[in-house]
From TrEMBL:
Signal peptide annotation: none
Keywords recorded for this protein, A-Z: Hydrolase, Metal-binding, Zinc
Cofactor: Zn(2+)
Protein name per the record: Acetylornithine deacetylase/succinyl-diaminopimelate desuccinylase-like protein
PANTHER family membership: ACETYLORNITHINE DEACETYLASE (PTHR43808), PEPTIDASE M20 DIMERISATION DOMAIN-CONTAINING PROTEIN (PTHR43808:SF8)
Stretches assigned to the Peptidase M20 dimerisation domain: 188-336
Matches recorded under PROSITE patterns: ARGE_DAPE_CPG2_1, ARGE_DAPE_CPG2_2
Pfam families (alphabetical): M20_dimer (PF07687), Peptidase_M20 (PF01546)
UniProt GO molecular function: hydrolase activity; metal ion binding
Top-rank taxon: Bacteria
Gene3D superfamilies registered for this protein in UniProt: 1.10.150.900, 3.30.70.360, Zn peptidases (3.40.630.10)
Family note: Belongs to the peptidase M20A family.
């Protein structure tokens, strides 16, 4: 047995050196490394694969039976680096300037390193957690999870019997304003509703100006509506709790404006008081959203196209809204004209659970960083948590990082020069360890 806990910073450097870029996804060597590390610490490991080159790892540390099993889930794949302007080699795991640099430093090999370090520390100390602790390390999170978490929950759900709570990545939920160090605790996620709109109209030679009823005119109307309009605001339990805490920890007019967002349906997101990124974030979690991302039409420059398709990335709030409810809202914005086909609909996402486990997450943060403010948040995106939530597990995005107040540390996520402060990783590993030793 390995009596030495794994150093989270060295571990992160090592993990970054595996080029587990997805697509194509070559997570195998990275997952095998993690399996060896856990086995060396005396932990039981199982590998479960739909594709043998892209295995999932599930490990279990027996607890004392005083609490339900707890799941830590992470993904081993990272997004590509092509076309990005890196100033350091992205897979070297360089340590400089107080940061670990490289693809995955934030999303999410940093988080995986924190979890693994905490687990090996628990083992090295001979500490048994209150309940069994399960670790799932999956491939394929970045392109739909078919080989990863979806395979696990569809084919090996029994491994997660009895699990009540899970922690995983934060899915990019971040708030930077207000001069405080906010610690996100992601309590809810939105789900995807990807669509294709088709617009039709009269054709003709493009040398003639002024035709009514063209597909281009319909496209202009639809894109204009999507760009300047908004779907209606809905105050969900996650939003209400977040806005109330932002109000409580804000000064001056911002506090009032945050409260108004909860109670006044006509209140607008305070773009005038917040950095744009924070306002955009709030705007995206108080409502369902729709963004046009791909436009396709003919390739004839001298012909008016008779058909144009537009792919739309729609996102639906947690709760009971169906895709039809969402489409009805969308119709009020874009009108009856476009034909809409749903290409992909994510599973319904659950409302948050604010119980004793949530309180444990918050109290670890308060203990480890008395100056920071834990903040319940919703992510406008979705992570593998949506799949584990389908098993009835209450999932939380919780990988604490110690960064300076106002830091937009996640701006390098999926971008060039992804990096994470060394002290942030050590802090996170320490918080995860504390959670494992104290949760009930
Ligand atoms: Zn991620």
């Amino acid at each position: 047995m390995n009596a030495v806990p794994a150093d989270p910073v060295l571990l992160l450097q090592r993990l970054i050196r595996f080029r587990s870029v997805n697509p194509p996804g070559e997570e195998g060597p990275c997952v095998a490394y993690v399996a060896d590390l856990l086995r060396d610490a005396g932990i039981d490991v199982r590998l479960l694969a739909r594709d043998q080159d892209r295995p999932n790892l599930v490990a279990r540390i027996p607890g004392r039976g005083l609490a339900p099993p707890l799941l830590l889930h992470a993904h081993a794949d990272v997004v590509p680096v092509e076309g990005q302007d890196w100033t350091v080699p992205p897979f070297e795991g360089r340590l400089s300037d107080g940061h670990v640099w490289g693809r995955g430093a934030i999303d999410m090999k940093g988080g995986l390193a924190m979890m693994l370090s905490a687990l090996t520390r628990l083992r090295a100390d001979g500490e048994d957690p209150a309940g069994d602790v399960l670790v799932a390390v999956s491939p394929d999170e970045e392109t739909g999870s078919e080989m990863g978490a979806r395979y696990l929950v569809d084919h090996h759900a029994e491994l997660f019997d009895g699990v009540r709570y899970a922690i995983g990545e934060d899915g990019g939920a971040i708030f930077g304003a207000g001069g405080r160090r906010w610690h996100p605790v992601v309590v809810a996620e939105k789900r995807a509703c990807w669509m294709r709109a088709t617009l039709r109209g009269r054709g003709g030679h493009a040398s003639r100006q002024g035709w009514s009823g063209t597909a281009m005119a319909a496209l202009t109307r639809m894109l204009g509506a999507l760009q300047t309009g908004r779907l209606p605001a809905h105050v969900t339990p996650a939003f209400e709790r977040m806005a109330a805490e932002l109000a409580a920890f804000s000064d001056g007019p911002l506090a009032g404006r945050m409260k108004a967002l909860i109670h006044d349906p006509a209140a607008e997101v305070p773009y005038d008081l917040l950095p744009e990124a924070d306002a955009v974030y709030l705007d995206s979690v108080i409502r369902n959203t729709a963004n046009a991302t791909i436009v396709r039409t003919s390739d004839k420059i001298n012909m008016l196209p008779t058909e144009i398709t537009v792919d739309i990335d729609g996102r639906i709030l947690p709760g009971e809204w169906s895709a039809d409810d969402y489409l009805a809202e969308l119709r009020t914005l874009i009108g009856p004209e476009p034909e809409i086909e749903v290409l992909l609909e994510g599973r319904r996402s659950a409302q948050p659970v604010f119980g004793t486990f949530y309180d444990s997450l918050v109290s670890v943060l308060r203990e480890k960083d008395p100056d920071g403010v834990p903040l319940p948040m919703m992510t406008p995106a979705s992570t593998d948590a949506r799949l584990f939530a389908g098993l009835g597990i209450a999932c939380y995005g919780w990988l604490p990082l110690l960064t300076s107040p106002g830091s937009r540390y996640q701006d390098t996520m999926h971008a060039a020069d992804e990096r994470v402060p060394v002290e942030a990783v050590r802090f996170g590993a320490d918080c995860v360890h504390r959670l494992l030793s104290t949760y009930r």
